[in-house]
Amino acid sequence: MINITKGVSVSVKKEFQFEFKTRFNTSQKMDYRKEILFDGDFYDVTDFISKHPGGTVIEYYTEKGEDSTLVIQQLHKRSKETVKVMMSALKRRPASDSEIGLNTAVLQRNRNLTEDFTKLHLELEREGYFEPSSVQAILRCMETLFLFGIGYFAFKSENATFTFIGILLISVGSTRCGYLMHELGHYSYTGNCKIDKILHSIFNGVGVGLSATRWRRTHNRHHAMPQRLNHDVDLDTMPILAFNAKVVKNSKDGKGFMVQNQAFLFLIDLFLVGFVWKFFLDPKFVLKRKVYLDMGCMFGHYCILYHMGFWHWLFTTWFTSLFLLGHFYLSHTFLPVTTEHKHFVEYSFLHTADVEHAPWCDWIMGYLNYQIEHHLFPTIPNFRLPYIKHRVKALAEKHNLPYIQHSYLEAWRKMFTNLYQYSFAAFYLQDSLILIIRNLLPSKYDDSNLMLEMFCFLKRAVVILHLMSSH
């Protein structure tokens, strides 16, 4: 076990202890306190939750059976010293096996998985896989700025063809900016949290039009528990999209026009999702929390859009939303959702999928086609992920966990099949089809049990064939 308080000065400890001093009377029962399990100890975070820089995601780990050790170590690898100071200011007590809330077999399995994952982490760390590359950082930044620059130059041309090419290049530049800001948000671009945070606001705000601060908060929730209902915010796409029937709260929502036809309206749906983020959720977030840097960068984006004109802006926004969200959705949406406790490593293998490992796909997807590796080690620079895939596969095999990988086209097919399967439209269509056929029959057949059975059989056959084709 690692002593996270080692090396922290007494004065710093006192400062944070005063800051996070409990507001509750010490005579109150421990049941009313909220604790997280970290590195074998329970830490009282009741009063810290509202002060947590990353938002309320920490509250997920106050649930019985959850262990925050690996997720804190991985998401906060670049800020270990800050984590040490904050944790040392919290009240802690040893955690007994009976208090953790897992049966003996699961607890032992989790410990074995943690031990092997930690060994792999330390090996990769010793070999320098977590170290950013200044060459890669410069090249990716130059690529993005080059696409924007050439695109703008062509856009200003009076030739309609060059104008269209310019808009297309600006759109591609915006997608590359999206991948770049993703890496900045994980602090794996320069490795310096302060620099990456500022650059994240600039590239995400000016280039994509979104708040970097809101992105970090929501994206970390996704990384903490991917595909976990009521935890992973990427599942909160209603009433526009429903990637799984369990995200539909009631039948009324499931009968909505957008959800019933989501497989056919997907190209429009992605634009609507991007539009809602860009012009409602993110502006609301930065105004409410007074995030001035994000606010200024987003304002710069709006100025650029105004200069481009409405229709040019519409195409750029649609293309960027389709390209980025479409590729992000390839790695999760057709996989099962869960409400059960999972080990940090299990989330990555059971609820995440890799897409084709090929250089051309690496570029198109910004190395996020190595999604399993990215979820296990979110602070490894993305360009290094291809080099660790074999070790990650070995970890999965040792613990009998699946390593899900699909070709690029197969991933798209699975996503659209999933959209259609959960659209509810297919089932309504079959009911309507049977009703139409029955109305076309002579009236003497209306009460025929034989005909009713035949129609019911036809309906079941259509459903079964559809489900078989989806696998």
UniProtKB/TrEMBL annotation:
It is a multi-pass membrane protein. Gene3D superfamilies: Cytochrome b5-like heme/steroid binding domain. PANTHER family: DELTA(5) FATTY ACID DESATURASE FAT-4, FATTY ACID DESATURASE 2. GO terms for biological process: lipid metabolic process. SUPFAM superfamilies: Cytochrome b5-like heme/steroid binding domain. It comes from Pseudolycoriella hygida. Keywords: Heme, Iron, Lipid metabolism, Membrane, Metal-binding, Oxidoreductase, Transmembrane, Transmembrane helix. One of its GO terms (molecular function) is metal ion binding. It is found in: Membrane. The gene is Fad5_0. This is Acyl-lipid (8-3)-desaturase. Belongs to the fatty acid desaturase type 1 family. CDD domains: Delta6-FADS-like. Residues 36-104 form the Cytochrome b5 heme-binding domain. The chain crosses the membrane at residues 263-281, 302-330.
